[in-house]
Fold this protein.
Amino acid sequence: MPISKAMPNLPDDLRLLEAEAIAILRETAASFTKPVLLYSIGKDSGVLLHLARKAFHPSPVPFPLLHVDTGWKFREMIAFRDATVRRLGLTLIVHRNEEGHARGIDPIRSGSALHTRVMKTEALRQALDLHGFDAAIGGARRDEEKSRAKERVFSIRNAAHAWDPRDQRPELWRLWNPRIQPGESVRVFPLSNWTEMDVWRYVAAQSIPVVPLYFAAERPVVHRSGALIMVDDGRLPLNPGETPEMRRVRFRTLGCYPLSGAIDSDAATVEDIIVEMRASRTSERQGRLIDGDEPASMERKKREGYF
Amino acid sequence: METGTGRGLLRFLTCGSVDDGKSTLIGRLLHDAGLIPDDQLEQARRDSRGRAEEDGGIDFSLLVDGLEAEREQSITIDVAYRYFATDRRSFIVADAPGHEQYTRNMATAASGASLAVLLVDARKGLLTQTRRHAIVASLMGIRHVVLAINKMDLVEDGEAVFAAIRQAFTVFSAPLGFRSVTAIPLSARRGDNVVHRSAAMPWHHGPTLLEHLETATAGDDPTEDGPLRFLVEWVNRPNLDFRGLSGTVLSGSLETGGAVTVWPSGRSARIDRIVTFDGDVAQARTGDAVTVTLDTAVDAGRGDLLSGPDDAPEVADQFAAHLLWMAEEPLIPGRSYLLRAGTRWVPATVTALRHAVKVETLEHGAATVLGLNAVGLCNLSTAAPLAFDPYEASRHTGSFILVDRLSNRTVGAGMIRHPLRRAANLHRQELAVSTAERAALKRQRPAVLWFTGLSGSGKSTIANRVERRLHTLGHHTMMLDGDNVRLGLNRDLGFTDADRVENIRRVGEVAKLMAEAGLIVLCAFIAPFRAEREAVRALLPDGAFLEVFVDTPLEECVRRDPKGLYAKARAGTLRNFTGVDSPYEAPDAPELRLDTTAEDADALAERVVELLHRKGIAEA
């Protein structure tokens, strides 16, 4: 067996963030009877999955992956998800809110707020209840949004999956308190202290595969509410006179394609993305249409059980 | 700090009195360093409408105050974390609230930080809250402080004001053990000396705030000089041929072939392999998360600590610690809590509250309980030995939290000072005759029957009848009654919450000794708190503690009032009376519930005997 002198060289700040995330993942495996890793296919999920493989090696990842599918993800995301699961031999559970689907809830006609509540928030609650998961590990970062900045690493949810920002347990040192009462569950955020830039630097340093949509390519897009929306399939109704235009674009965050704004970009590699971000003057979630509905809308969604 | 492997990480917190401008300072820092994205800036500009317009039309605190309640009240109530990086360093900022009632949040922020930026309003100088935060920062192990003297644009003769405040802080903080204090005059609102040097204060020759943060020697960059401490987080068992210990190197370094000792057991082994996802390595440094295998099959698991052979941690089940109380419900000495240190959970009790520490002045004072945000020096006793270092030597291995056994809330944060040697000098003596042998001679299974309920509910009446029945059946029994015990063993105790807890703790220990003697012990005590009843249960073997809830409604007890106590309590001549001005916590899941309004004492006593029969304790 090849033995190298020491661990591969990561910059110290990333090495510390990596070790902290690994400790959190092990804490979760040791403290809960049925954890699940929420896999949303994006770069953060990719990093989370990579860390989980590192944390438990040589054991396999000791929990399944859960993807809450709204039915409106980019086709490339679904293809990437299935290829990743096959390549790594993982267990994947895909859950869709069938009741919401039957009601015809979609991101275009129902509006982003209703679509998110039914197909993401309610769907997640359904899936956790259905399988009896007591801990759900997610890739959310505190730097994404202001109300996330006060989220705990181990965040307790009551039996209705609601979050009470005024009644959170203090987290001191690395002495997390994952103890829960029957019916309660926990959301675990190992990437709490990472920034978007840390994620990309780590993706580059560890050669972690990501969905090609993050890289610039010619894609068919239309202008909607000041954002560039990709016409990923025939379900996006075009307004009168509207024709998709081919533009060289990429995505900073990925979600439901009618709600994910693209940016003009020439960044075709992870290194290009890092250079582009250093020069960037806008925040990551800006391309997301679901956060801007009203002030403090993320905090409201989280109280209702959104991730 | 630049290192051979790239940039480092500085975790710092901002603290200081409310209205001194902490959130504004962080907002300004991020803004001037060019780190606020345009869309967030635009959002803040929009939200600034209707509020006091600051320079540039932006209220910079809006860039950081996150929760709706905070924006409404214009205060920071929780710790908010911010992240930014310059070319020289990555930063994690914890923004801690200023109000007194949020001292616990400030301590939380400080626990993860290695430097504190302490804000002072130049017009007001050092306030009570400034002093409190300096003391809490010191207590939490912070050794480097930036004294950020803000609102310099609002004072006349700034140079003299700055010098006076700096001097006052130097005098005040002398006993706090800070290794560096750097005073910087600034204006967060105008951006003076935050990132850019200010023309308004030409007399200031020191660094700007950002310059100092980028170069301060308080980085979290791991050092290898400490003793080896490897914390086991998870036992890695993919198959029968591999048993690894997954954990983090908290200090020092690990090498294959190196001798290690597993604590608290004290067993020795050598490191066989250091396994990582990227292949085996020969060495792991401080901060690395790895999996090790040992050359011999010593018993080791989650919660254990590995050290080198010559630098053992302290191992004790009694120690002294500073405790910061974080819950509304006060700390009560004698009550059993769950303690977490490292990855180990163990039941623990505060055996003595030596003194309270006033966090405004560092003065000591006598105390019997610790309330929310209070700090005390305590003696603690754990149910099993713990391996630790003094907090001064290591924040990782010298810290602990206390968790309420029923609500699971985190209620206390502890910093260990030193082990108590009396633990080392007491050794449990093996007894020649075992509990099982003593019980066998009496032909019975020992048990503790605990009757709980309000005063006058009928506990003693029913317990006496049960004992009479058991005696007739040929069982060896003993009765412990509340009033009788208080007339003897516990005559030094009163009826405060703290004394009630101690009362039950002693009775629990006596009942345990009697059960070990082979007896069936009947206890009739109000025992108003669930936590104490559960603590007695935890003293005994599984199944040996049977809780009998004598459930009589308060109105019925008041109507009966056999000792005339309710009348006195209601007249105000008897204080701390359960059900009147002292709480009673009914059992959630007693082994037996007796409804005294439905059946008479003999019938209820028979139900208890039936329970004992079902459990195989008594004859039919």
User: Anything to note?
Assistant: Confidence is low (pLDDT under 50) at residues 1-5 of chain B. The longest strand of chain B covers residues 344-357. Chain B touches chain A through 81 residues (CB under 8 Å). The first helix of chain B runs from residue 22 to 32.
